[in-house]
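User: Could you walk me through two proteins back to back? I'd like the raw sequence and the structure tokens for each, with a short line separating them so I can tell where one ends and the next begins.

Assistant: Of course. Protein one, sequence then structure:
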Amino acid sequence: MGRKILAVVAGYAAMAVLVMVVFSLALATLGTSLVFVEGTTRPSGGWLAFSLVVSLVAAAAGGWVAARIGHQATAAKILAGVVLILGLIMAVAQPERDPERAQQIIDEAGGVEGVAMGDLADIAEQPAWFAWVIPFLGAAGVLVGGSSAGRGSATA
């Protein structure tokens, strides 16, 4: 039981670290000009697609880590449930974007390009569907990663 808990926590941590590193590198390299539709705070289609791919890959990596540490796919299945439940809770509890606060952040930064990485989520006008896709995509990615961890090994 303790090994499965450790596996789920490690899988979730692997997902979180991978997402943070990839997005930080992408933003540092590309800047915000490719993130938002020009003149708006709406994420571009390319950025949304990139986000979905990164989320899927990170989820698969987390599932793989959970299954390897847990020595079976059960840990990945538990992680998939955690990802789905937490994601749906976050989708339901999405904080309402405050346009005045977003504009204040943009003004203080001298434009969207100057907004700090930590504040980008506060100014972005994420499409409503996006928050509902991520939990299902994440859970599916975890299951794929978890099932691939056992291929070719006797621990599956």
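----
Protein two, same layout:
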Amino acid sequence: MQAMTDNYGNPSALHSNGVRAKQLLEQSRQKVAAVLGALPEEVLFSPSGTIANNTAVIAAVNMRRRRGSRIVTRYFVSAYRQKICADSARLDAHFAERLNCVHRQENGLFSGTENMPAIAGFGAACEVLPDPLTSQREMKKLRRRLLTKLSKIPTILINSPNDALPNIINMSILGMPSQVLVNFFSERGICISAGSACKKGHRSEVLTQLGYTPIRIDSAIRVSLSRYTTEEDIDRFVEVAIEASNKLRYREF
């Protein structure tokens, strides 16, 4: 709110509102850097996720240009990132933003004026973020609980590898289309997705490359855990998954 009510100036401007906005910008940069274990000058706020991807890839390619002219890609990433491979980190603040001005931001790297509400919100979120390692340990416990219970249901197959990140599980409830499952769970107060947002309406290329059958892919859903997820949430999800399994007409896959 501070960026929208008090420090709403252009951080590149020299007047008092601009100076205060610039201070807020740099404070936010420091907060994000602290969470990442990075230096503040290593953190850049880009206008969008796509621009962040492009910047990371182009920078990585330019740094390694002497090593060769071939870029290795892989399928086990989101639709956009299937085109790229880099060791730079990209974080999403997940704020809506559009920058169409000719002004330049972040040392002239990006066009437009900094989206201060989004940047300040990103910094504030990082400031209250709990210890990531502790949160990850808790999510791993919840993941094990969920997978153990799901393994007892014959019509459910887990598509995620064992070493996947603990907060995302891709699974198939055989015989029921993904979107039907999304609606089924939603009617019972549980929000899941049929896949990544950038692949909406399309069959997962990742699951296809893993060699899964079309029916298994078309029954796939993605379940997300968070630090707010409880054991009771896990048990409730399993109850609904069993209910969904009992409603389908089982076929051989």
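Residues 67 and 206 are 29 Å apart (CA to CA).

Let me know if you want the two compared in more detail.
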